[in-house]
Amino acid sequence: MKVLDKLSYNQKLKLLMGKDCWHTEDLDGQLYSVTVSDGPLGLRTPTLKGDHFEDQPSVAYPSMQIVSQSWDRDLTYRLGCALANDAIDKNVDVLLAPGLNIKRSPHCGRSFEYLSEDPLVAGTLGKQYVLGLQDNCVGATLKHYCCNNAENSRMWLSAEVDDRTLREIYLRAFEIACEAKPMAVMCSYNVVNGVRMAQHKKLFTLLRKELHFDNGLIMSDWGAVTDAAAAVRAGLDLIMPYSDKCETQLETAYEQGELSDEQIDECAERVVEFVEKCQKAKEVRKVTMTVEDRRAIARQVEEEGIVLLKNNGVLPLKSTASISLGGNFANNYINGGGSSSVVPSQPPVTLLKALTDILPQGHVSYRDLWEYGVSEAPLLQIENAYGKDAAIVCVGLHDCEGFDRATARLPQSQEQIIKETAQKNPNTVVVLYCGAPVDMSEWIEDVAAVVWAGYPGEMGNLAVADVLTGKVNPSGKLTETFPFTEFDYPACSCYSDSTVSVYSDGLLVGYRYHTTAAHKGLKNALPLPRFPFGYGLSYSSFTYSNAKANVSADGVAVTFEIENNSDIDGTEIAQLYVHEVNPRVFRPFMELGGWERKTIPAHKKVAVSTLLPMSAFSYYSAATDKRLVEGGEYEIYIGASSADTPLCVKVSLPRK
Ligand code: BGC
Asked: Which CATH number fits domain 298-469: 1.20.272.10, 3.40.50.1820, 3.40.50.1700, 3.40.1280.10?
């Protein structure tokens, strides 16, 4: 007899809601109780201590934009494996991660939890993260489905978005990650086109039927359900966390016939399946990595994900360099706030410690420059920067879930510190610790170098020091556009108020906008970005040559060569963008179709080959409600970023 058949409807109703904040209902021991815990940048396991919850320490990995800036599929998979090991240590069955929301604005307070502005990058790396977790028998949860692209008013803001934009931009990352068969999807708090996501039957049905989330469980975000019966009728399986208000709503709706037996069974059955899958997984899963292995992955993610944004030659520092190190972020742990904030497994390595260990004794002299956590008033002990080989200034922003940034500029005090340091030392290097792009207009021209460190987690400053001193040759490339100023991004001029946000930027998010504006000549175009999508410097220089393409039924096979013209080994992330020459419907000028990450020895040339699947040429046709690949001419641009594509090959796809 199936578990469900043994249960009364009151018991089934109970199953549709958590038992508490972090567990599913066990019906007095009749069922296994699944434990869920937050990610994505480490495991956050709040544990009841007396009358309050305390988070247990766990490895703190770098923020998610750093993960994606590595563009490294294998490393992201291994990050998933490491996180699974963290979860197994703490008896956690399902991680509430990864976050796949698209970065539509540099003001979004939660960008540090998300991967990219581009759905192919977010989806592909999200999929790898899921596979890493689930291959180690820990479930993954894709979140926040969908269009949670801002934090202010996230409980009621309606994202007003057309079908094609939804499919091609905001749902596409979920669709790709669903190929890994994630155990769960978490719906977002917000409203989409007037319907609260927790009760969005249309988008739940689409998720299951068209995005291939075939047999997983849909859970709510914490406290996202306002009408529990409507949520169950829409197909939301699990309301989280337990709430007596929702319990009463469900019971009353059932008694009054507003919830049918079938509707309850449908969701309860998926909860039982989810519970059984977790119970089976628990029986076989085991720890396969030491904590040191996981910390090594945390360090490698930062090594590969740091982006060197500007360098006039001051970096890498010489091994004998004397430096002044300023700014409290050099001597403090800085991370993003909210449900993803992790208590590190060991005292995090600071940049001060990491550089002091590398450079000769006495060569690093440190000053606070402003009072951390007390006030942002500069202390201005900048004389320290005089006469040193380089002055490193560590600045940043505390981004946090629940709030969007009021500004994407650094606090005035930090801008002042950067400028004054630059006046004292022409070799001023800015290290940026924050979760999303920063408006650098006020100071970028004054400084010699800028290193984008994101939130590096507990090990990442070792990697930052290695990049500064050249032990690691930087290879990370941006997975989101850095606008020229904080207002120069397409969504900035779209209508929004405290209840609605109109996505009239449509498909033109990030580089899709900028490349279209540059090539198609949009009226009143925004200035070119400060740093384009796909951009990142290296201590090596690369040249691209000899592109060829061959069309087959599987897609388009592209080959080309990259030469490392420098004296040191380096890694290049080559990107391939697809452009339809004479489209019948509007298409962004170019869209990422694939990428290859290659380590190339000094003065060597390597051959690169990649297969662009037919989906790379497709678009969602709202008229036929299908993804279509039009026959005709396409150009494939190949290069180092969305704004630097030295190679182009033409292909012709057959007309059907
Ligand atoms: C967040 C989710 C998180 C949940 C549980 C919510 O506020 O939006 O991402 O998983 O809390 O902590």
From this structure: 3.40.50.1700
